[in-house]
C-alpha cells in the first residue's frame, strides 16, 4: 500500500478538493485516500495518485513552500498540463496559418471537455493568463503580449472511465512502467517496451484497462517495481502490486497484439489508447518544421534572453534544441547561435531539428559545459572547430576478433589491432569487457549512432553577447510525475554544486554589458534561488535584470539550515520580483520552472 504521513495525507486531501474545483473535475467531494478496506471494486479503477517523497526532502520543501502549498504542488505534479503549447516557426509560417491547419488535422471537437463536464473536466482556471485565450476556441493564439507566435491546443481531464466493472468480473488488464505511464498521460500510446505484465488470454483487439506499477522500496534499500516482465495477471489480490495499483489506472485501450506477441516482439504499439484519463492530442509527425511542441516556461526563458540580430549567443546545455531554435527564430536567423552538448547523439538531435526548421545560424559542437573556457595550453576557438573522429563503428565494422573494430583498428581478445597488425600496447581488461558489452547491447544514449559532429576545446572569455544556461537539474518540476522517492537531500545538493560550476563558466564567457539567463525545470530552491544568491555574492558585477514577458510568480526569500548545520541562503527581500518561478499548482497550469536573468557589468575580467 502507498503510504505517507497523516499530516501530509490530510493536506493532500484538501489540495485535491481545491484542484477538482479549480479545474472542473467530475468529483465534487474530496477524493478518497488510498485505503482499501471500505472501498468498492469500482473505486479501485480510478486515477488518484499520491506523490511520495523522501522524508527529508519533504521537510525541506515544506519549509520552503509551507505545508498546504507544497501539498497542492505535489497533487498538481501527478497530472499533466491540460493544454498543449506549440511554438510556431515564424520564419516559415504564421500562427493563424498553423491554427487553420491544425483545425483541419485534429479538429475543433476532437478534444472532449465543455460538452460533458460531468465526465471530463475542461474549464479554464479563473485568473489564468490563458483564460482570455480560450475564448477563441480550443485551438487559439496566445494572448500574452510578445508571445503571439505561440499556439495553445486545449485538452481535458481527469475523465471518468467506465472499465466495465459492473458485471463483477475484473477487466482484462495491462500493467505498464511508470515512465511509460507518464508518457501516456501526456498523450503517447503504450509501446511494447513499457509493458510489464498482462492478463491471461488477452488477444489482439481486446479492450484492456491500463494501470501503472510504481517503484517500491526493495530489501537492499533501492527502488524497483519488483515485477518480472511477462508476469501473468489473474485479477486476484495475489497479483503483483494489486493493492498499490488502486487509484493508478490511466485509461483504456485496444490491444494491438496478443499476450504472447506483447512479450515476443521488441517494438511497436502495444495498446492503442482510445479512452484516456487525460485527453491531449498527439502532434507526432504533424506540421514538421512549422511547429515545435514546447513547454510555455521554456519559451519564456528563450524570450527573456532577448536575443538580437547579429549577436553571438551560446546555449550551454542545448539538447534537444528547443530553446536553441527558439533563440534563432527570435533573431530571425541572423547572427550566430552556438549550441553545445557533451553527448554526440544529442548534438545530432540539435542539428536535425535546426535542419527541419530551416535555421542556418545555429552552429553545434560536442563540448562538456564544464569545459567551456578554452585552456591556455590549447588553441582558442577560432570558429574553425575540429572534426570528431569518434564515430561509433557500424555493426558491419565490428567483426574482427569479437571486439570493437573499425576499418583498420580494433580492440579484441586483449590485443589492439592497428592497420591490421597487433599493437602490443596495454589495454585493460575493463576496457575489453566494456567494448564487449557495447557490442552485445548496442549503443547507449551517450554513444554515437553515426553521423559527424564537431568538437570544440572551449571558447575565449568574453566572446559571447548572451549566454543561456538551462542547466541539468533534478527535474522535479516536470509533470506528470508519479514517483519522487529516489531524490535525497544529498542528491539535490550535489545537483546544486554541479550547476554552480557551470555558472562559473558562463560568467567568464559573456562580454561586459552582456546577459546571462539561468533556468531549470525543478522546484528545488537549492538549484534556483540559492544559485542566484551564490551568483550575486560571488560576482559583484552581476545584477538581476527585469524579464519580459513576466508571467511567472516571485522567487523564494529566506534560508534553510540542514541537519548537518549547512545553511542554504536564498533570495533577499526585493530580489524575488526579478526572477520567475512557475508553480505547477498555479492557474497557469505549467511545469515547475525557474528563470533568472543577469546583467553583466564592466568588471567582468575574471
From TrEMBL:
InterPro entries: MeTrfase_RsmB-F_NOP2_cat, MeTrfase_RsmB-F_NOP2_dom, PUA, PUA-like_sf, PUA_sf, RCMT, RsmB/NOL1/NOP2-like_CS, SAM-dependent_MTases_sf. Transmembrane segments: none annotated. The keyword Glycoprotein does not apply. The active site is at residue 521. Gene3D superfamilies: PUA domain, Vaccinia Virus protein VP39. It comes from the Eukaryota. One of its GO terms (biological process) is RNA methylation. PROSITE patterns: NOL1_NOP2_SUN (PS01153), PUA (PS50890), SAM_MT_RSMB_NOP (PS51686). GO terms for molecular function: RNA binding; RNA methyltransferase activity. Keywords: Methyltransferase, RNA-binding, S-adenosyl-L-methionine, Transferase. Residues 224-601 form the SAM-dependent MTase RsmB/NOP-type domain. S-adenosyl-L-methionine binds at residues 317-323, 341, 368, 470. Belongs to the class I-like SAM-binding methyltransferase superfamily. RsmB/NOP family. This is SAM-dependent MTase RsmB/NOP-type domain-containing protein. It comes from Linum trigynum. The lineage of its organism: Eukaryota, Viridiplantae, Streptophyta, Embryophyta, Tracheophyta.
